[in-house]
Amino acid sequence: MSSDQQSEETNGSAANAPDRKPIVPQSASEALRPEPGTPPPPPKRRSRRARSQIVVFANFMLSLVVLVVLAAAAAVYFGKLAFNEPGPSDVTTNYVVKSGTGIVEIADGLERRNIISDARVFKYGVQAYGHQGDMKAGEYEIKAHASMREIMDLLRSGKSLLRSLTIPEGLTVEQIFQRVREDDVLVGDLPAIMPSEGSLFANTMRFSRGTTREELIKKMQADQKKLVEDIWERRDPKTPLKTIEEFVTLASIVEKETGKADERPRVAAVFINRLNNRMRLQSDPTIIYGLFGGKGKPSDRPILKSDLEKPTPYNTYTINGLPPGPIANPGRDALEAVAHPSQTKDLYFVADGTGGHVFAETLEEHNDNVKRWREVEKNRLDEAAKAATGDKNASPDADNGN
Description:
Largest sheet: 2 strands, antiparallel
Helix content: 40-55%
Structural class: mainly alpha
Number of helices: 13
Strand order of the largest sheet: 1-2
Distance between the termini: 181 Å
């Protein structure tokens, strides 16, 4: 190939590769120097929002709320299980809730007595049900292994154990006060001022432990007032008694004269017939009240003949009509008897020696009855004397038949 042809090919190749870099002569040291590598990419910059303290705090609070919700849910779940599971006590226990006691004190007391396992669970459980203000005072019988839920329902129900105190008919206010004072289930003092005679309800009173003596007396007054007013409204319109006070006074005399309910209307008739005939009542119990007042006659003190003549406002052997007030607290039967007495003409009665009485319309008949009663009494005393003498002189081995 000629030099002209080589020159054309070279020029043609150059024309076909216009982008090829020209060859620059390099020295040996430059040719051996390594070429620089590709530089690393610049670091990414965090956004201002990600770097914000508010966002960081919000993330923390969100996490905290989630944890709290989970913990609360777990506490509620396990607390509800504990609230409904059987309790730790192996025996039935009586527990007293005093008046005014709060849920915290109740819960602590139950835990101390080992009736519940955890006072906090009981307190929060009761509060969760909204019953923290529904606990009622009283003495409760809590069954063995009762759950907290069962205990809550029991204390809410008010179905506490009831104690009883029997007040017999015919006691005076002073004697009733003494019985109430001696009852160790009741608490507190008696009223400073005694209520009027005849104003207390004579019956078996039911109450829960922790009831005060003053509360019981007030209840007895309210019950007696209602009883008297109800019976007075239904009284026989022909009765000569003008006021409710006279009604209670005569009922108290009838109450003291006989302990047999079936003969009280007839005893009441005798006194009403005497009032209608302007006769003195001549009732021995009124003499006793005039002499001894509310304390009552000593058991070993008989009524003497001289007592019949001692002037007191209550001695119906010396005064006309009714005494100034009741001589005891009458019960329902005596009040009903005076409100609805038997329709008889009896003016007298005397004991028959068997616990009852014999009635008479005339003094002559009455004197015969008194004579028979005295004979019965004499025979009774003679037999008692013989029995006492026989016991005193008997051989120590008499009971053995030797």
